[in-house]
C-alpha cells in the first residue's frame, strides 16, 4: 500500500515540471515522513523481514539441529506434499478454527451486548468476563489439564461423586471429548477479549441513529440486523481476523492438555512444525512447513478482508 | 595511540592466558535432571580427591538434547556431558563428540563395561561414548495386594499367563485397586517396558545394525494381545490411557496396583519415599518364560575439539573404580562395570541384585533417529501403541507404524 502511494507521488513529481518549488517542498516533506517511520521500518526489517528471509533460506536446506546444513533446493517442499501427518494436521487445524471461531463469537457477541448497557454492576461483569484473558495460554492449559484429569481432576471425579456417571470417564482418552473440552477451555479463555473488541464497536455507533430508527418503528431485531451489524462491520472484521489467525496458530493447549492425543488426532499444524523441528531435529523441513502455513494464513486473511470490505469501497 | 594498542594487545593476551588456564583447572559437565540423585555426590567425591576439578550443571531432561546441540553449534558446549544413551548415535554422527576409542581400549576392564552403553556409543566402528549411569527395566509386584488376593507374595510371575492371572486376582479385590499399570501414552516408557516382552519371546525391534524396522512380527502381535486383553478386562486403570509418562512411576507408588513394569530407579525411590509399599522385583518375562530388559541410562561423552582426553580418563577411572560404582549405586543408578557390580550393590537392598542382573543382559535399539521413532510424542511408536492398546485396528496400525518407521530410517541421510 505504501509503495503504491509513493509511486503515484513520484509520477506527479516527474510530470509536474512547472510546479518546481512545490515539488521541492513536497520532497522534503516526504523525507521527514520517511524519517518518522524509519524506526518502525527498521524494526519490521530486523525482526520480521530478515528472519523470514532466513527461514526461507533454511527451508531450502537439509538443516539438522546437529551437524552441517546441506542445500537441497525444493526437496523439503517436495517431501511435504507426501507428508500425510502434515495435511491431517492442517485439516484438523482448519476444522478447529471454524468451530472455535463460531463458538467464540456466539458467546462474545451476546456478552458484548449484555455489558454495553449501563446498569448496576456493569463494571463488575466486564471485569469478570475479561479476567480469564489475562491468564497466559500456557498456565490456563495447565489449569485445565488438571481439571480434566481422570483421577485427581475435577470434572470426572465430581461427575462420579454426584452420581451422574457410574464410573470415572477419562475425558482425554477419546477424540470428541478431548476436542470439545479444549474448545470450551479456549472459549472461556478468549471470549472476554473478543467481547471487549466488539464492545468498542458497539459503543462507536451513535445513539442518534438508533433512536431515529426506533422512532420510525424498527423492532429490536431489525435495529440489530440493519443498523448494529452493518456499522460494526470493521470491528467484526478485526475480531474475526485476530481470532482466525490465532486459532490457525494454536499450539499450547493441544500440546499441554492433550499431548496431541489421542493417537495424534489433535496435532495442529504448529505442533507438527514444532515436533519436526525439535523432536526430529529437522529445522529445514520445519522451516518449509512454516512457509506453507504462512502462505495459507496470508491467503485466508486476504479472503476475509475482501469479504468484509465495506460495500462503498472504504 | 601506540600505547593504547599495546595495552589492548596485552589485555587480550591476558584474557587468552587466563581462560586457557581456567580451562585446564575447571572443566564443565552437564547432566540431566533425572541423575540429580547421584551425579552431584559423585562429582563432589571426585573433586575432593583429584587436582582436576569438574563443575557440574544439572539440565532439565527434556531440554538436554536441544541445549547441547545448540551450544555445540555455538561453541559454548560443556567439556563433558552425561547424555541419555539413546542420543549418542545422533551426536556421534554429527561430529560433536570426541573419538574415545583409544581411551576405551586402554581400560583393562573394558570388556566388563555395559555392552548396551558401548553399543549405542559406537558409530561406524569407533567408540564415542562410554557408560556413565545405568537403569534397567524390571517387573514390580505389590506383595501386600498379592497376599490379599490369595497369591504367594514372595513369588513373582515368570510368564505372561501368570502375569495376567495374578493381575486378574488382584483386580478382583475391587474398589480402586487395579491389576496392572503402564503409561499408555508414553513412547519412551513403553520402549523401556514393552520391548523386553518382545525380546524375551524371541522377537526384535530394529535389525540390520539399526537400519531396518522389524515390528510387524508374531511376537509383537502376541505382546499387543497380551496388553489388549488386560485393558479389555479392566485390569488397567482408566488414567493409563492418557499417561504421557508423568505417572510412569506414580501409578505403582499409590499402593493400589498389583503389577507394573518399571525401571530400577523405582526401587530406590519406593524404599526412600514410599516405605509403606511392600514390593518384589523380578525380570520382565517372555510369553512362555525367558527374560529380557531394556538397558537405559546415560553415556559419558566428550565435546570434540578440546584437549580434554587426559582429564576424561582420570574421571572415568574414578567412575569405574569400586568407590565410584558404589557411590553411583547408593544414589540410585545401577553399576555400569559388570565385574565389580555385585560388590558395589552388596550393602544395598536385596532387590537391586535382580536389577543389576537385568542390566547385564539389557539391550537398547541403536539409531541416530531413535528420538524420532520411539520418544517423540508424535512419532510412529507412540501412535501405534495408543491405537493397538486402546483402539480397534491392530493389524493396520502395526503395518502403518512399520512403514512409517522404515521411512524415517531410510530418510536419515
From TrEMBL, chain A:
InterPro entries, alphabetized: ABC_transporter_permease, MetI-like, MetI-like_sf
Every ABC transmembrane type-1 domain range: 90-304
Pfam family, one: BPD_transp_1
Listed Gene3D superfamilies: MetI-like
Biased composition (Polar residues): 1-14
CDD domains: TM_PBP2
Positions of region (Disordered): 1-22
Superkingdom classification of source: Bacteria
Subcellular location: Cell membrane
Bilayer topology: Multi-pass membrane protein
PROSITE patterns in the record: ABC_TM1
Sorted UniProt keywords: Cell membrane, Membrane, Transmembrane, Transmembrane helix, Transport
TM helices/strands, residue ranges: 31-58, 94-115, 127-148, 235-258, 285-308
Keyword Nucleotide-binding: no
Keyword Membrane recorded: yes
Similarity section: Belongs to the binding-protein-dependent transport system permease family.
Official protein name in the record: Sugar ABC transporter permease
Record organism: Dongia sedimenti
Lineage: Bacteria, Pseudomonadati, Pseudomonadota, Alphaproteobacteria, Rhodospirillales
UniProtKB/TrEMBL annotation, chain B:
InterPro entries named among the record's database cross-references: SBP (IPR006059)
Pfam families: SBP_bac_1
Keyword Signal: yes
Key word Signal present: yes
Signal sequence annotation: 1-23
Keywords: Signal, Transport
Family that this chain belongs to: Belongs to the bacterial solute-binding protein 1 family.
Listed name of the protein: Sugar ABC transporter substrate-binding protein
Organism, scientific name: Dongia sedimenti
Phylogenetic placement of the source organism: Bacteria, Pseudomonadati, Pseudomonadota, Alphaproteobacteria, Rhodospirillales
Amino acid at each position: 500500500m505504501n509503495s503504491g502511494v509513493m509511486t503515484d507521488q513520484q509520477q506527479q513529481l516527474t510530470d509536474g515540471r512547472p510546479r518546481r518549488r512545490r515539488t521541492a517542498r513536497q520532497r522534503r516533506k516526504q523525507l521527514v515522513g520517511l524519517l518518522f517511520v524509519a524506526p518502525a521500518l527498521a524494526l519490521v526489517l530486523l525482526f520480521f523481514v530478515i528472519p523470514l528471509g532466513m527461514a526461507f533460506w533454511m527451508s531450502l536446506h537439509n538443516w539438522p539441529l546437529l551437524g552441517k546444513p546441506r542445500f537441497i533446493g525444493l526437496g523439503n517442499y517436495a517431501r511435504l506434499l507426501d507428508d500425510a501427518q502434515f495435511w491431517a494436521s492442517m485439516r484438523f487445524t482448519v476444522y478447529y478454527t471454524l468451530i472455535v471461531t463460531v463458538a467464540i463469537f456466539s458467546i462474545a457477541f451476546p456478552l458484548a451486548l449484555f455489558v454495553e448497557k449501563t446498569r448496576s454492576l456493569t463494571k463488575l461483569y466486564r471485569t469478570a468476563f475479561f479476567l480469564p484473558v489475562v491468564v497466559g495460554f500456557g498456565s490456563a492449559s495447565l489449569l485445565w489439564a488438571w481439571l480434566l484429569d481422570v483421577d485427581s481432576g475435577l470434572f470426572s471425579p465430581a461427575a462420579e461423586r454426584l452420581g451422574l456417571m457410574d464410573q470415572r470417564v477419562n475425558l482425554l482418552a477419546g477424540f470428541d471429548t478431548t476436542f470439545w473440552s479444549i474448545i470450551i477451555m479456549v472459549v472461556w479463555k478468549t471470549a472476554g477479549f473478543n467481547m471487549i473488541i466488539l464492545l468498542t464497536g458497539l459503543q462507536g455507533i451513535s445513539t442518534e441513529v438508533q433512536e431515529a430508527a426506533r422512532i420510525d418503528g424498527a423492532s429490536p431485531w431489525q435495529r440489530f440486523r440493519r443498523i448494529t451489524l452493518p456499522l460494526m462491520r470493521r470491528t467484526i472484521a478485526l475480531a474475526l481476523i485476530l481470532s482466525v489467525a490465532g486459532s490457525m496458530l494454536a499450539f499450547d493447549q493441544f500440546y499441554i492438555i492433550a499431548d496431541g492425543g489421542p493417537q495424534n488426532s489433535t496435532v495442529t499444524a504448529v505442533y507438527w512444525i514444532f515436533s519436526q523441528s525439535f523432536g526430529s531435529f529437522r529445522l529445514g523441513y520445519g522451516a518449509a512447513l512454516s512457509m506453507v502455513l504462512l502462505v495459507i494464513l496470508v491467503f485466508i486473511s486476504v479472503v476475509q478482508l475482501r469479504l468484509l470490505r465495506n460495500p462503498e469501497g472504504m | 595511540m601506540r600505547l593504547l594498542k599495546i595495552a589492548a594487545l596485552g589485555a587480550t593476551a591476558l584474557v587468552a592466558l587466563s581462560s586457557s588456564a581456567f580451562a585446564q583447572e575447571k572443566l564443565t559437565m552437564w547432566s540431566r535432571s533425572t541423575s540429580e540423585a547421584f551425579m552431584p555426590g559423585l562429582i563432589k567425591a571426585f573433586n575432593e580427591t583429584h587436582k582436576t576439578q569438574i563443575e557440574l550443571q544439572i539440565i532439565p531432561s527434556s531440554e538436554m538434547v536441544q541445549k547441547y546441540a545448540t551450544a555445540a553449534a555455538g561453541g559454548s558446549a560443556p567439556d563433558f556431558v552425561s547424555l541419555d544413551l539413546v542420543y549418542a548415535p545422533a551426536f556421534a554422527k554429527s561430529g560433536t563428540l570426541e573419538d574415545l576409542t583409544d581411551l576405551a581400549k586402554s581400560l583393562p576392564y573394558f570388556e566388563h563395561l555395559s555392552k548396551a552403553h558401548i553399543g549405542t556409543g559406537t558409530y561406524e566402528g569407533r567408540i564415542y561414548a562410554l557408560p556413565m549411569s545405568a537403569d534397567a527395566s524390571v517387573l514390580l509386584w505389590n506383595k501386600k495386594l498379592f497376599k490379599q488376593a490369595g497369591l504367594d507374595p514372595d513369588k513373582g510371575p515368570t510368564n505372561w499367563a501368570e502375569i495376567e492371572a495374578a493381575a486378574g486376582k488382584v483386580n478382583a479385590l475391587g474398589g480402586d485397586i487395579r491389576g496392572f499399570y503402564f503409561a499408555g501414552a508414553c513412547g519412551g516408557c513403553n520402549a523401556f517396558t514393552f520391548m523386553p516382552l518382545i525380546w524375551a519371546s524371541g522377537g526384535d525391534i530394529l535389525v540390520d545394525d539399526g537400519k531396518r524396522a522389524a515390528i510387524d512380527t508374531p511376537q509383537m502381535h502376541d505382546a499387543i494381545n497380551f496388553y489388549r486383553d488386560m485393558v479389555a478386562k479392566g485390569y488397567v486403570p482408566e488414567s493409563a490411557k492418557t499417561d504421557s509418562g508423568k505417572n510412569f512411576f506414580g501409578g505403582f507408588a499409590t499402593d493400589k496396583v498389583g503389577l507394573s513394569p518399571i525401571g530400577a530407579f523405582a526401587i530406590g525411590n519406593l524404599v526412600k519415599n514410599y516405605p509403606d509399599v511392600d514390593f518384589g522385583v523380578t525380570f520382565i518375562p517372555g510369553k512362555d518364560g525367558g527374560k529380557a530388559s531394556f538397558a537405559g541410562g546415560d553415556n559419558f561423552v566428550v565435546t570434540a575439539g578440546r584437549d580434554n582426553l587426559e582429564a576424561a580418563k582420570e574421571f572415568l577411572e574414578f567412575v569405574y573404580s569400586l568407590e565410584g560404582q558404589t557411590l553411583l549405586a547408593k544414589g540410585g543408578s545401577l553399576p555400569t562395570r559388570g565385574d565389580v557390580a555385585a560388590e558395589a550393590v552388596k550393602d544395598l537392598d536385596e532387590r537391586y541384585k535382580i536389577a543389576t542382573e537385568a542390566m547385564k543382559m539389557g539391550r537398547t535399539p541403536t539409531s541416530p533417529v531413535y528420538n524420532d521413532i520411539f520418544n517423540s510424542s508424535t512419532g510412529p511408536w507412540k501412535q501405534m501403541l495408543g491405537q493397538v492398546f486402546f483402539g480397534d485396528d491392530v493389524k493396520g496400525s502395526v503395518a502403518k507404524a512399520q512403514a512409517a518407521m522404515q521411512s524415517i530410517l531410510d530418510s536419515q541421510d
